[in-house]
Amino acid sequence: MAIQHSKQNMPLKSFTRNLRRGLGSAIIELKNSPEREMYRDAVMKSSIKDIAYDTQVEGTKGYYLYTAIKTFDNHDEFLNHIAEKFSKRLYWRLSEQLYDMLCCFSNDGYQAASEAFENKYNELIHRLPAARGYGNSCCEREQLEKLMIRKMDSGLESFKQCVNDMGEMIIKRGNDDCLWYDWFLTNAEERFGKDIYVYIEGEENENIAAFNRAHKKSKPDESDRLNFKIVTVNDFIQSYRFEQSNSEEENVTTIEQLIDYAKELSSKADNTPFRIRPLSRKFAKHAKQEELKSLAHLAIDESSDFIKIALFHVFKFADFPLDIGLLLPYMTSENEDLREIVVEVLSRIKDKRIHSLAIRLFNDKLVENAIALLKTNFEIEDEALIRKHVMRSSRVTHSIIMSITGIYRKYKSRTCGDILLHLYKNAECSHCRCNIVEIMINNEVIPKNVLKECLYDSYEETRELARKALINENGNAH
Fold first, then answer.
1. Core vs surface per residue 234-268: b (16+ CB within 10 A) or e
2. Distance of alpha carbon 413 from the chain centroid
3. What pLDDT is recorded for position 254?
4. What element of type H or E holds 184?
5. What stretches in the chain show pLDDT beneath 70?
């Protein structure tokens, strides 16, 4: 698809800001601008620094940065700097970003990238057995496991080499503390079949026998294993939900049990009411209306703010069953946590008093809370207030994004385009930006140039949304 040329260069500061956020506009600028060399240093610095917002949700920007790099001449200069950085001891997020870029280089036939993987692999298998610890800052066991998985691209013999090397590490260490290998074995099984276990168990080689013993000792029961492999961000989220649901084994079926747990939390100095959330969700799901009413009365009458907040968590998942007038006084509490949980409880309920409260909060400059209350109480006239208070600042919080996208997912508007575009340009999280793009498409307010730049966004789902929207648009045009 042809890309329209920019009339003038994007200012370097704006380009760097867009690049760090993963916006497609930065890639289009690189593709179009005859002066792209002015951006080389910004791309170089971003490539060897962690520019992710939250890798657990959005993944890394490795592929995106590689797309930027490919617009320049002399790719080897970038590759050399990335490979050199990758050779250092790194924390997990930066390691992931560099790894993803090196995978792109290697896939395109750059031998230096493959050598960077091999060098790092050899360095780790020799150093980890003697290392004193494997802290969260480095996560080098995970780094080695990813390198082993990548190494298997060469075939079954590379798998055998990795198993041999792991066994040798276990013998040197005296245990398998220096290794992670469950994900490695899952990948190997998918590539080469279950015969890999026959090989591991039948091989008399001392190293492989050592690995087999360690693997059997650490192998979980089949009933405890997930039925899917984590390969994408969505799979990670699915696995998190699976583990979360399984962590709620305790049956909280009575109000007394819920209150007892809230009291237990309040007695521990390092606890917060938020930790009751999983049990609150479970209680709300199964409670009868009379139980909810009883709990609501107890929460209102509770003298401890901590326990009151904990009990109010139930009404984030079930509508508050009493008159909301009982909650409104808490909006003037000096306890910020209490005010915040009441806002979340009220945001589920449609009531003119809540709408009036939202307008008052706008006047008091409590914009996040005001918009949250409009999620169920929005009126089209409120759009002017949202526009006035949100678009005056480039700082866009996660809470504001979630509330506004929630509003326009439920209430369609053909005049919200400028508000959503402001969120799109200023969102730090590319996953949140994807939600904004989806809402713009659904409300038919996404500018054509923005839809096209989304094809180059750092977030894969945003790119896919844009592709589908353009296909639908072209189809409808015919």
1. eeeeeeeeeeeeeeeeeebeebeebbebbeebbee
2. 28
3. 84
4. helix 182-192
5. 1-7, 134-138, 219-253, 475-478
